[in-house]
Amino acid sequence: MVGMGWFMCMMMMVCVVSCGEAAPGAKFEELYRSSWAMDHCVNDGEVTKLKLDNSSGAGFESRSKYLFGKVSIQIKLVEGDSAGTVTAFYMSSEGSNHNEFDFEFLGNTTGEPYIVQTNVYVNGVGNREQRLNLWFDPTTDFHTYSILWSKRSVVFIVDETPIRVHKNLEDKGIPFAKDQAMGVYSSIWNADDWATQGGLVKTDWSHAPFIASYKDFKIDACEVPTTADLSKCSGEEQRFWWDEPTVSELSLHQNHQLIWVRANHMIYDYCFDAARFPVTPLECQHHRHLIKSNYNKLEEPTDEEENDMLDLAFGLTKAARLGCQVIARPELDGVRLAIPSATRNFAVDGFVPEPH
């Protein structure tokens, strides 16, 4: 019986791992179809191309709708001067109270980095933008962009590196996208009224056509029979690979990757935009935001005696504060505190500390 128990345990482990592995990439026409400007959507062998010129952009959509799972596409973005253009890869439901998870790639002038903007809509409400610069040139080769959606979270992933996690915080009274089936979409269009440097740089049509290329299409998700029948995918008795705790929560390594991305490549987070949101959005008070701008939220020291003490501290940095100068507030949730590698010891009442 011990041997049989061990065998069954191993079988369960193998099933969990193998069920979580991505299926081989499908052909474009097996999963998708052109949704508008069909003459600007071209299949070239294993590669599908969307074209933008001064007459039209283009887009494609999935043939089915899904509730939870992982969708991935390899994309090579517009080369050269792409200012004013936006290439999007996203999931979305329908209607005014729709849910949506966005990757938007904001074009730039030649030599300037692409900006990746992610956004999350829940029940028709968005305004949850985050922006970052990638750690590679996305125009010279294909890179994989993925959305992993489970009952616990939505994870945006680039080349298997998580760049954003939007958690289910329904227990805090915050709505989460879990009850609307979504299609998968991609498109390219002209957005020179806002896309590049806030609309200051316009699209140079002399560089048209602007072409985004796609390949290796993967959808490993729960397909719904109709948008009204979600029981196949959402019932409590249903359990899929993305529901496993080892998948629906970031591993230690993935958490380190996310911290690295946010610390080194994040350039905007709506949670810290006090001009747009004088009151910190509720979900921001519970999500962990590990970015450099957290340090800008620390109070500037005003007490002269405390400043004098701070000046004597070992390894002083711009972000250094005395413990008594840090006031714990919700927007500091997730800030990493670094303890200096050494201290300066002072004699108290004649006591001289021994070296150790």
From TrEMBL:
Keywords: Apoplast, Cell wall, Cell wall biogenesis/degradation, Disulfide bond, Glycosidase, Hydrolase, Secreted, Signal, Transferase. Its main location: secreted. Its EC number is 2.4.1.207. The keyword Disulfide bond applies. Residues 1-22 form the signal peptide. Contains at least one intrachain disulfide bond essential for its enzymatic activity. It holds the Pfam family XET_C. CDD domains: GH16_XET. It is found in: Secreted, Cell wall; Secreted, Extracellular space, Apoplast. Transmembrane segments: none annotated. SUPFAM superfamilies: 2Fe-2S ferredoxin-like (SSF54292), Concanavalin A-like lectins/glucanases (SSF49899). InterPro entries: 2Fe-2S_ferredoxin-like_sf (IPR036010), Beta-glucanase-like (IPR000757), Beta-glucanase/XTH (IPR044791), Beta-grasp_dom_sf (IPR012675), Beta_glucanase (IPR008264), ConA-like_dom_sf (IPR013320), XET_C (IPR010713), XTH (IPR016455). The keyword Cell wall biogenesis/degradation applies. Residues 16-214 form the GH16 domain. Catalyzes xyloglucan endohydrolysis (XEH) and/or endotransglycosylation (XET). Cleaves and religates xyloglucan polymers, an essential constituent of the primary cell wall, and thereby participates in cell wall construction of growing tissues. Belongs to the glycosyl hydrolase 16 family. This is Xyloglucan endotransglucosylase/hydrolase. It comes from Brassica rapa subsp. trilocularis.
